[in-house]
User: Fold this.
Amino acid sequence: MANSINVLGSNMKYLQERITVISNNIANSDTDGFKKDELVGKSFNAIFSDEMEKFLPEAEKRYGQGVLQFKPGVFSDRTYTSFSQGLLQETGDMTDLAVSGNGFIGIEREGQTFYTRSCRLKTDGNGYLMSGQNDLLLGENGPIRVDGEYRIDENGQVISGGKTVGSILLADFNDLDQLQKIGDNLFANLAGQGNKRPADGSLKQGFAESSNVDLADEVISMMQVSRLYETNQRLVQMLDEIEGLAANQIGKVR
Assistant:
């Protein structure tokens, strides 16, 4: 019975983590450029089988037999980000900039390069283009300086004062799982330069990319996961009561 409670406990921990992820998605459903997260669960059976395969040939075929037979619950495996395109919305504000298709805009913060899908631009006192969070917008050859008004074409060319003053850094990545959220809709490339590749997307000035969160789907998922959590909680309480009752009855046996 104690093992059953432990199994239910691991299930509840996994479900609680799913609730946290879904809650964050819902909270950011109106955040421009936000990419939703998904939590992947994995049974202990699968985890054990993967590890055994490293040491025991054909462990997966033998798994589930004899000493290799375990069924103790579900655990969190990993959280991954869905990079599906959000809806592009024309804002009429030429300081808005978004990516259409594949690619990320380069941003510099505290000397490090990060990437975003959508941002609102402004200029600092020296005319350099910056994001709304005061991060430098990066060009292929470093920060971009404009002289008054400017426009950005679909290839990222920045035209100001009747001439091209820079080309916005637009990059894509071979393995998107190597991108880590750091806040403010910025992503860090954990795999270094070898993970980068040219982007085939385009830039849209005067547009913002909405979140790719489907609010209705997330609310439904929240309801389903919450019910599962409550069911597991009730089962734990029930088993605990049964265990207590059994202990009391055994204590009365003379």
User: Anything to note?
Assistant: The CA atoms of residues 5 and 71 lie 13 Å apart. The first strand starts at residue 37 and ends at 43.
